[in-house]
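> example.struct
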């Protein structure tokens, strides 16, 4: 990489500053401004952090221009038919594919920790039946801190593995319990004989008189959804986990915060919005053409959900894989889904629309993932919960990477203050005094 300079020169007035250039293994270039304020008094301004690298990471690589995604150096396309989600989780967290013995040991840990503490199980009975499952999930992950206080602070690898295994295993049980609660159904305990995805489906769908039997296509599709969501470098929820973890908050609290960040409709909640949008079109509330037109209207808050991405300015490679999986799964089902046809129509319209072309807006992972989850009988309000289960290994991997980095410090950005200046303080104090008088006067 001979053409990359070692330093950048910043000229501010009559002074100039040399800033080191940092180069990643795929040639990404960054200017290290960490000492700039000390040297010059200036900070950099990047309101949505879209041009700011906050760490060095070796977990996931994305090239948004080319539509490339790799986990630990392996292209995402390699994960389509194999391996299991648990194997991918281990790989993301520990940096390489596990040996058979390591995988067996980790799977055994997941089985051992799949039950919730009985008090935690009883707590579910107090939750309103219509409570949003994402609220239940976030609260319940944080609640793990009640029951596993030995992991609130640790430095050894063995404790980390124990805490991570509890999270990856129990998140499934919590998700299934949240669903059962919303349906007014009795909770199903996990079945240690079942593998990760089958166990989740069993806990969600088995009835006391009828064991849920899943087809291999459904198990594979769920595995694929989890694998495709497992990490995506510095996205909003992962960054949240890093921010919380940077204060040395524990792994449970940090991942619980990740769930809250994922909930939003501009992030993981988009898969729900996609289905709501498709349903609206299906019931005749608007045509696909009107939907596209509304999403382009400047004054409108409506967006074509499942389209666009902060990093991808090309196809999100996961969206292609999920679209193909949808075709495969629907081919094995006796029924189709009218929403799938509407989604295809919207995609076709958007991809040839100049507005979307000019802004490089392509389908993202959420455009088809909800349709795939629907095909498995998973209800819309559980979509983002399933996304969270998938993303958990990524959050844990990033938490660990940051925790293990001796140079990492608490994440604490700066701001440019634009509030009341010092020369207006007299006026502010007078206003405060007025308010105090009003509050003290009898009403
Ligand atoms: N529909 C219509 N217009 C869009 C869309 C969309 N889905 N996405 C972006 N645009 C437009 C914006 O209005 C803006 O137009 P302008 O330049 O005329 O003002 C331009 O494209 C750039 O958009 P930004 O908002 O600056 O893009 P940003 O990087 O901030 O946001 C985001 C990315 C949040 C994903 C956005 O594309 C969006 O809201 N998409 C819909 C929600 C969605 O699908 N989210 C899931 C993302 S994937 C994930 O989190 C798992």
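> example.seq
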């Amino acid at each position: 990489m001979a053409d990359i300079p070692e330093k950048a020169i910043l000229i501010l007035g009559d002074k100039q500053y040399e800033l080191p250039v940092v180069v990643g293994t795929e040639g990404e270039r960054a200017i290290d401004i960490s000492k700039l304020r000390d040297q010059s008094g200036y900070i950099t301004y990047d309101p949505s952090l879209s041009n700011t690298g906050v760490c060095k990471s070796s977990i996931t690589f994305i090239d948004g221009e080319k539509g490339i995604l790799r986990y630990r150096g392996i292209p995402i396309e390699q994960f389509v038919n194999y391996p299991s989600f648990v194997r991918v989780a281990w790989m993301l967290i520990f940096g390489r594919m596990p040996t058979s013995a390591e995988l067996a040991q980790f799977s055994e840990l997941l089985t051992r920790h799949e039950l919730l503490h009985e008090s935690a199980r009883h707590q579910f009975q107090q939750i309103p039946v219509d409570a949003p499952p994402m609220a239940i999930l976030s609260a319940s992950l944080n609640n793990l801190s009640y029951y596993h206080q030995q992991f609130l602070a640790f430095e050894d690898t063995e404790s980390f593995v124990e805490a991570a295994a509890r999270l990856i295993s129990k998140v499934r049980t919590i998700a299934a319990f949240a669903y059962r609660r919303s349906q007014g159904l009795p909770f199903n305990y996990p079945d240690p004989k079942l593998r990760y995805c089958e166990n989740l489906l069993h806990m969600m769908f088995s009835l006391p008189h009828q064991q849920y039997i899943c087809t291999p296509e459904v198990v594979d599709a769920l595995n694929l959804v989890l694998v495709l969501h497992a990490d995506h470098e510095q996205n909003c929820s992962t960054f949240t986990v890093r921010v919380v973890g940077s204060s040395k908050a524990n792994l449970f609290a940090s991942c619980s915060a990740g769930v809250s960040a994922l909930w939003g409709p501009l992030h993981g909640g988009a898969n729900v919005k996609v289905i709501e949008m498709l349903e609206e079109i299906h019931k005749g509330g608007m045509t696909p053409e009107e939907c596209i037109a509304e999403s382009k209207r400047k004054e409108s808050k409506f967006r074509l959900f499942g389209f666009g991405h902060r990093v991808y300015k090309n196809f999100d490679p996961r969206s292609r894989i999920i679209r193909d999986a949808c075709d495969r799964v629907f081919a094995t089902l006796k029924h189709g889904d009218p929403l799938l046809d509407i989604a295809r129509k919207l995609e076709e319209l958007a991809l040839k629309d100049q507005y979307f072309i000019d802004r490089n807006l392509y389908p993202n992972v959420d455009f088809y993932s909800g349709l795939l989850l629907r095909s498995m009988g998973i209800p819309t309000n559980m979509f983002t919960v399933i996304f969270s289960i998938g993303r958990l290994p990524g959050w844990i991997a990033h938490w660990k990477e940051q925790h293990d980095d001796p140079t990492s410090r608490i994440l604490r950005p700066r701001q440019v203050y634009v509030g009341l200046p010092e020369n207006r303080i007299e006026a502010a104090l007078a206003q405060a005094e007025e308010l105090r008088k009003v509050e003290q006067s009898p009403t």
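> remarks
The chain has 18 helices and six strands.
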